[in-house]
Design brief:
Radius of gyration: 30 Å
Largest sheet: 8 strands, mixed
Strand content: 35-45%
Distance between the termini: 41 Å
Number of helices: 14
Number of strands: 50
Length: about 900
């Protein structure tokens, strides 16, 4: 967060304006706060979760995470100390025991914030943070929607908007077309994937945020927008486009022929207001005068959406029975949706594909059709979201999203936390020297979300999987994200290397019956045959890598495991790896028991470092006294600080002899970091005294690396406008590349102001970023056309403070460790703050204007990895951060 300068007499009027605007926002917040608390009291599903003290703490702690100047600490059981900038006040919340007393308490707290906060965070952003703190203390699906988020939410549910019809992203600071949507104005005008949009109407897109670009391209149908497009090797061209209604296709369909059998395919990406109609239209299209022999309903990675759409689609395939019961407060049934005979599809076999990304409305269809004996469900267990949210508008284009009910597919079954279990679990297996994946990766589910609702104990469980089908999947490379987007927005689905669809097609071809139970009986032979075929492929692929995947018979003799580990750089064993290195981690497994291990696999996991998770070491058949080895390549990110990386190792074994979990440590030495400084000049030759609107202004920047480490090749510098697009960036981005310690680079930028530019509201931002090392600096600059000046004054060298930390243990058994060090800056220190994980533990200002501040922090450590981030800022609000990691070993 960027915060305004310290109060001085010269900035009194500006600060006064800020406080007045914040006080105005507080009255607005008061109305929204009152409405929020009233809605919670009247509509929230579980009154027992409404805890006023948790709400107030969560609200303020949310703010302290987002705004540097805000800090909260607690004394005793009913007092908190709130710091906002230089002001501190104690608040007693002893009387906060219901929502009216919470409202009164928060009115006082927020008034204190308004009176003392002088930063440049917008009032509506502060409001969003505070209200979200109240709501997300209830459950992970309740929250406050700002105007931008609410607008996007409504577009997602309507399934259409006014625009030109392109999928865009930002690549190297340039607005880039990922895919034009077929049949839209952009597609018809010849816009292609890879085109760069350099201008929208009269505004430059250089360094424009994706959100701003989307908002400018969207608009009412039949209105015009002019885009300037560049394509590799061709001159730029202007395209005048008339916006049209752009339909977000939530449904794809295809006809798959297997011999003389006709299998339909319908993929549903989300549930919008138009999804039911799209499914009906898709069914008509794929039938084309001949009834289907089966239908694949693909809802993999479908996050849900409108329940009404899910209910109507379920009804297409059911003659009778309960589709869905919605249960509200006090376990009172709010609504029961029953199937109708009218409009029901013929009784052809249906197979539903789901996975861990299938949630909410997609779980309703899968659960309802599965339990009502109408469809086979195949894939992997779904996400497990069994709650219903409603939208309550709060004025000004904002809204609350609040949990008001649970839903029960088929009227009896809860999917909360457990999800829909497939009848046929389909498990991909990747066998490659650099990528082994024999077991399902751990993925985020409802049960992993903080403050999730518990399972409804009054409901039944859905059926568990009856069959497991493992298949050999080709190794997936680092698939281009752009290509994934293009495929996603293509109207034609692709089934190349899509084994689940291929299996579903074959299964339905031989199913014959529409009853789930009958299909499971008649399909057993198909499943067993494909299993045998695929297991043979997996076994052969593992054997080619030296892994014996034979099954050992169960005996009374027990195996035992001794596991060793080592780190290699090339052929050399090393004791500590460097951040950015490509290493190999080798595990050596020795069976020290008398029995055999059958299909033994070690699986590495890490909560803190995704690149260490789901890493498999296949040892296979490991007989008594045998030793097996397996190595995996690991590319360590360049931004890792010095630490002992810990990989938890768990085991899978076919005969129930899995060894106990253990840990492997990978010591890492962090890289020395670059530290950037800059100064700038505005060459005045050929410039008028004032910056006239439209006059091209040169902006020359000299950048120096003051640090002890070199920057990466991904280092760049850019100027952007924070000005409602009243600064046109002509030349605003350069790639700096590698800068060694002491290196200097001079770069030239250009910009001009547009009509309506207001220096009291506008800023230009210079950023220098090393993306690989996750470091850099950012500085807001004041551009005043009427005086022809930019401040800080040209020629001023701007750089961040330095942070030096004394010695500390990388691994400890202690619950508390003291961290000491110093923060220094020749041009003064404004403040510093400290996070341990997501918890802010310290904030200190520097009212005396000292150039050196000592650090002495007692850090309370949790078991496992503790990331400690120290951020210091100078009076120009240029920040520097230092990250250290301490691993606390588990108590025994």
């Amino acid at each position: 967060m960027k915060i305004k300068k310290t109060i001085s007499f010269l900035t009194f009027l500006a600060v006064l304006f800020i406080n007045i605007s914040l006080w105005g926002a507080i009255s607005l917040t008061t109305a929204r706060l009152d409405g929020t608390l009233r809605a919670i009291e009247q509509h929230y599903l579980e009154p027992a979760r409404i805890d006023p003290r948790k709400m107030l703490k969560n609200s303020i702690e949310n703010l302290q995470k987002s705004v540097p100047e805000v800090m909260v600490s607690y004394k005793g059981s009913d007092t908190l100390t709130l710091t906002v900038g230089h002001a501190t006040r104690k608040f007693s919340y002893a009387q906060v025991n219901d929502l009216p007393s919470l409202k009164k308490f928060l009115h006082d707290v927020w008034a204190f914030i308004a009176a003392n906060y002088t930063g440049d965070e917008k009032a509506e952003d502060i409001e969003t943070v505070l209200l979200n703190g109240i709501l997300d203390s209830l459950d992970p699906h309740s929250g406050f929607l700002s105007k931008k988020i609410y607008d996007e939410f409504m577009i997602g549910t309507r399934g259409k908007f006014g625009g030109i019809g392109i999928v865009i992203s930002v690549r190297d600071g340039m607005l880039t077309v990922i895919a034009p949507i077929e049949g839209t104005p952009a597609y018809n005008a010849g816009v292609k994937a890879g085109d760069r949009i350099v201008q929208i109407d009269d505004e430059s897109t250089i360094n424009m945020s994706l959100t701003d670009a989307v908002n400018k391209l969207r608009g009412d149908p039949n209105t015009s927008v002019v885009i300037t497009v560049e394509r590799e090797g061709k001159p730029s061209r202007k395209l005048g486009l008339t916006r049209a209604i752009i339909n977000i296709d939530s449904v794809k369909h295809a006809t798959l022929m297997e011999g003389d059998k006709k299998i339909g395919y319908i993929g549903i990406r989300s549930f919008q207001s138009n999804t039911y109609k799209d499914v009906v239209d898709a069914l008509k299209n794929i039938k084309s005068g001949r009834e289907l022999d089966g239908l694949i309903l693909d809802m993999r990675n479908n996050p849900g959406g409108l329940l009404s759409s899910a209910v109507k689609i379920s009804d297409l395939f059911l003659n009778d029975g309960v589709i869905l019961s919605t249960v509200g407060r006090g376990n009172v049934e709010m609504e029961k949706d029953m199937a109708n005979v009218s409009g029901t599809e013929p009784p052809y076999p249906v197979l539903i594909l789901i996975n861990e990304g299938s949630a909410s409305a997609s779980e309703i269809i899968a659960g309802a059709l599965q339990y009502n004996d109408r469809a086979i469900v195949a894939g992997s267990e779904s996400f497990g979201k069994g709650s219903v949210q409603t939208i309550i508008e709060t004025g000004g284009g904002t809204a609350l999203k609040m949990t008001i009910a649970r839903y029960l597919p088929a009227g009896e079954f809860s999917v909360q936390l457990e999800g829909v279990a497939p009848d046929i679990e389909i498990l991909p297996a990747v066998v490659d020297k650099e990528q082994i994946n024999l077991f399902r990766d751990k993925t985020l589910s409802e049960a992993d979300l903080e403050k999730h609702l518990e399972k409804d104990t009054n409901s039944k469980n859905l059926p568990k999987p009856k069959y497991l089908l493992r298949y050999l999947k080709p190794k997936s490379g680092d698939e281009d994200l752009d290509e994934i987007s293009r495929r996603e927005y293509s109207k034609k689905p692709s089934f190349e290397d899509d084994f689940p669809v291929q299996f579903a097609t074959k299964f339905l071809t031989l199913a014959g019956k529409s009853s789930r139970n009958e299909m499971l009986k008649t399909g057993k032979g198909t499943i067993d045959g494909m299993n045998a075929e695929e297991n043979a492929k997996i076994k052969k692929a593992l054997a080619s890598l030296g892994v014996d995947w034979s099954e050992a018979p169960k005996t009374h003799a027990k195996p035992g495991l001794h596991l060793g580990s080592s780190i290699y750089s090339g052929e050399k064993i090393i004791s500590r790896a460097r951040a950015g290195d490509k290493i190999e981690l080798k595990l050596v497994a020795t069976n020290s028991g008398k029995g055999d291990f059958s299909q033994l696999v070690a699986i590495g996991q890490s909560e803190d470092n995704a690149f260490l998770s789901d890493r498999e070491f296949p040892f296979g058949l490991l007989k008594a006294d045998q030793t097996r080895k397996w190595s995996i390549p690991i590319e360590l990110p360049e931004h890792l600080p010095t630490q002992d990386l810990v990989m938890a190792v768990e085991f899978r074994e076919e005969n129930g002899n899995a060894p106990e979990k253990t840990e492997v440590v990978i010591p890492v030495q962090g890289l020395e970091q670059p530290v950037f400084s800059f100064s700038y000049s505005v060459p005045t030759k050929n410039l008028s005294k004032n910056f006239e609107s439209g006059q091209s202004i040169p902006f020359d920047v000299e950048i120096t690396n003051l640090g002890k480490g070199k920057s990466s090749e991904d280092t760049s510098a850019a100027i952007t406008d924070k000005c409602d697009d009243k600064i046109f960036i002509e030349n605003g981005r350069v790639k700096l590349g590698v800068m060694k310690p002491g290196d200097k680079k001079k770069e030239k930028f250009r910009f001009h102001t547009l009509a309506g530019y207001d220096p009291s509201k506008c800023k230009m931002v210079l950023s220098i970023v090393d993306a690989k090392l996750a470091t850099g600096l950012s500085k807001e600059l004041d551009v005043n056309p009427s005086t022809g000046t930019i401040s800080p004054q040209p020629g001023t060298v701007l750089y961040p403070p330095s942070i030096e930390i004394g010695e500390y243990p990388l691994t400890t058994k202690k619950k508390i460790e003291r961290i000491t060090g110093n923060i220094e800056s020749k041009n003064g220190i404004f403040d510093y703050y400290v996070f341990v994980g997501n918890n802010k533990i310290a904030y200190e200002t520097n009212p005396k204007g000292l150039n050196k501040l000592p650090l002495a922090l007692d850090i309370e450590l949790k078991e496992g990895s503790n990331k400690i981030i120290i951020v210091a800022r100078n009076p120009e609000k240029i920040a520097r951060s230092k990250t250290i990691v301490i691993h606390r070993t588990k108590s025994k």
